[in-house]
Write a structure and sequence with these properties.
This protein is mostly beta strands. Helices cover 10% and strands 37% of the residues. The chain contains 2 helices and 12 strands, in the order αβββββαβββββββ. The strands form 3 sheets. Strands 1-2-3-4-5 form a 5-stranded antiparallel β-sheet, with no helix packed on it. Strands 7-8-9-10-12 form a 5-stranded mixed β-sheet, with no helix packed on it. β8 and β9 form a beta hairpin.
């Protein structure tokens, strides 16, 4: 009895279509771009608004990514350890520095005001998304460091892996790329300042 994989493979050949090695979805309402490969890589890119209504459950994670390589989690989101028991821990877990994105001058992209409110918000948006079964380029931008602008571009092709490029225009303060506890050669990140 043939497996589902064999069935898909033979169906694709019979119909004259090539099997897709990269699938990309943009979920407009939630603000996420999700890309996954046949080899088990999975990227989630946060390009949405800063939460719903008062954004009580939001994090300061504009343009953050999570990434699994060959099915193994590599860049993760730490989640929320507590809601009300330890306010300092809650703020640390939802701070920009706890996510796979960057800070400017150690400043978060959004500032909390209490356990379930925000004094400031960073709204991200998807600037462009170009894709085919072998290649994706997704670009997002957010306003959390206004007047500076943070732009992140994610590039993936079947044979070259993942490239994350961060650009911050209009700032002379230090820029710090945050990738949780993992920052190794499997993911390349280029930090540039506008004009440099």
């Amino acid at each position: 009895r043939p497996s589902l994989r064999q069935h898909r493979s033979s169906t694709s050949r019979r119909d004259g279509r090539r099997e897709t090695s990269l699938r990309v979805h943009h979920f407009h309402d939630s603000g996420y771009v999700v890309a996954h490969t046949r080899g088990g890589d999975r990227l989630t890119f946060d390009v949405g608004r800063h939460g719903f209504r008062n954004a009580g459950h939001a994090h300061a994670d504009a343009l953050a990514i999570t990434l699994s390589l060959s099915g193994t989690p590599f860049l993760i989101d730490s989640g929320t350890a507590t809601y009300t028991m330890d306010p300092a821990l809650r703020n640390r877990m939802r701070d920009t520095a706890a996510h796979n994105t960057l800070t400017v001058d150690r400043r978060p992209s959004a500032i909390p005001r209490g356990a379930f409110q925000w004094a400031t918000r960073a709204n991200a948006s998807l600037s462009s998304l170009r894709r085919n079964p072998q290649f994706v380029v997704a670009e997002g931008v957010h306003d959390g460091f206004a007047p500076a602008e943070h732009r992140r571009t994610i590039i993936h092709s079947q044979h070259t892996g993942w490239l994350i490029v961060d650009t911050v225009e209009g700032v002379s303060a230090p820029i710090d790329g945050r990738y949780g506890e993992a920052m190794i050669a499997a993911v390349q990140s280029t930090l540039t300042r506008g004009g440099d």
